[in-house]
Amino acid sequence: MPDEADYTSRRHMLQWLGASAVPLVLGGNARAAALPLKTTGLEHYGMTVPDPEAAAKFYGKIFDPQLFQERDPPPRFYARLGKSYLAFGGNKDIPAPFIDHFCALTEGYGQGEVRSLLEAAAVPMGAGALGMATDPDGLRFQTLGVPGGLARTIIPASRISQDDALFQAVGTDHIMLHVSDLAKSTAHYRKIFGMEVSTTKNPNRVWFGVAQTRLGLEAAAAGEKPSIYYICLRVAGFDRKTAPDKLKRIGVEVLPADDLGLVRFRDLNGLVMALKADA
Description:
Elements: H1 10-19, E1 24-26, E2 29-31, E3 39-49, H2 52-62, E4 66-70, E5 77-81, E6 84-90, E7 98-106, H3 113-120, E8 133-134, E9 140-145, E10 154-159, E11 168-179, H4 182-193, E12 205-210, E13 213-219, E14 227-236, H5 243-249, E15 253-255, E16 263-266, E17 272-277
Parallel strand pairs: 3-6, 7-9, 11-13, 14-17
Antiparallel strand pairs: 1-2, 3-7, 4-5, 4-10, 5-6, 8-9, 11-14, 12-13, 15-16, 16-17
């Protein structure tokens, strides 16, 4: 897996320092925070791909033709998805592109507190102050402070065109992780997000509520590598009947519908995204 430094920036450092931990003091009495985390929802996702700019342009055609990039090296690109966004980092030596991490915004914590809480709950953490939490399969989870969004170290890059975006993304609906041991992963994320919610009768799938967003766990198929399998976005004015043809017209591979009734597609690196109506 690429070095931890590949996924951090000054933006992450500033927001993490403002979002993490020691006990809060109210009315002169110290009150220690506790898990589950107080979060405003899932916000952004890191992708490790061979060509970050090409990946950003692919998503720019679909969601927002104005791209962004880091002001300073190494070259990282960003595509906005309404309140959410994708961050693209490059690594030509990886066996295959992958969704590297997901992030939730937290509020009400002091310096270092989030990390301290997770460590106290025996959640493995990456090295250094900016190390991310890892689950039983090594999938990574980051926390940043509200209000989130792109940082001052990120500047406008090229605009792909003057055409309107194909879809108006509002933000994240849910993400789905494919895990090797559903029971172990459920116990892990229960520490962080609280008890799971019951929104499906599928025995191979578990859901957690993360504010107005959701985290799904699904048992990986035999021989399948665990992964952050897909990201699902809420789309304004979404028409599930016409969406596949819109995607196909710009050369995007549309995948068969699943039992959740989503429109899913594969990006230029083989990674899966999904769309649904903003209910």
